[in-house]
Each structure stands twice: as C-alpha cells, then as structure tokens.
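Continuing the batch. This is chain 6 of the set; chains 1 through 5 are on the previous pages. Same settings as before, nothing changed between runs. Recording input and output for traceability.
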Amino acid sequence: MNLVNIAQARFNMIEQQIRPWNVLDADVLNLLADVRREEFVPLAHQALAFADLEIPLGHGQCMLAPRLEARMLQDLQIQPHEKALEIGTGSGYMAALLGRRAHSVLSLERIPELAAIAGTKLQKAGLHQVEVRVADGSQALGLGKFDAIVLSGSVPQVPQHLLDLLAVGGRLIAIVGDEPIMSAQLITRVSETALRSTTPWDANAPRLNGFAEHSQFHF
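Output for chain 6:
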C-alpha cells in the first residue's frame, strides 16, 4: 500500500469499524489515527492491517481486531500519570497504544520470539516507556501495583492474582467466558478490600495461553 492508500485505510478503519462500535472518545480516536498499526503487523499480512479481523502472528497467536483494542482502551480511561500492565504483548500494537496514554507500561509475553519482535518495534516507534518482558502472565506475581491492566485475549475467568495487582482506583479489562458467549469484564478496585465489576459489551476473542480452563465435569 502507498501512503495515500494507508491513510485512507486507517481513516476507514476508524470511521467504519471503530466509531460505530461506540468508541467515541476523541483522544482514543486521535491515538488510533496517530499510532501506525501497519508497523506492528507481520509483513506477510500488511494488506490486512486495517481489516476488521484477527491477524496471525505465528506461534499460534494473533492480533485482536482493531475495534476490540479500541474499545478496551476507551473503557480503561488511562490517565497520563498511571502505570499500565498488559498480559499478552503479541504484536506490540496494544502496548504502543497504552504507551501513548500511560506514564509507563509493562507488557508480558510468553513467547520469546514475539516479545523480541514487539520490543524492537516499540523502541523503533520511540516508546521507551514501554517494557516488554518474557513472562507468563497467568503466573504474574510480585510486579507491584498498576492503575490499568488489560488482557489482550480471552480467559475463562479473571484470576485473583491479577486482581491483587490493581491499585485502589485501578481498572482491569478482559474478555471473559467460553465460546460462543464471551463478554468484556471491567473490574475496578474501589478500596483495598472491594471490587466493582461490570460487563459493558459482548465479544469473542482468542484464548490467552496458560490460564486455567473451567472444569469440564457436568453434574
């Protein structure tokens, strides 16, 4: 794609996929226009950079559809002084979006090859406040407290150890459930001992690896 086509495709993504999905926050829309999604897409799939679909990354992983990433970012309402944690770096695109909003970002990726590629792309984009670490997010412990946590994939349920990483006032968003019915779950820590949970929208997403599935026993 040439620069004119890329600019038009990016505009179409925002106006035809993202805005109709109730992503109306002007700061988020401007961010999607500024961050070059195509630079985080594997070369073999760059023609699909702005399509409303999941893009393969290899290693059995994929980028989420743009509208999911945009809606999650909007719901988190990240402020410039906040610390963010991402579980599942993948391409690095969501980490780039987070890095443009938060003070600092830690993104965990199980697969070393993906972590290396994403880290290089984030550094090239000048996002030095984003750290990509090879780690299993399903076992993320002892990382300190975060104001915003995003799971870039679905889980059967949000594990307690991730909720324990939320600072008071912190928000976690994940796509939770089992196919064919999954929902976004937005969890806010309202005090040291209390959480508030809402399910603002429905969507399916590929599984994050490593998180325990529900028991398959039926009674």
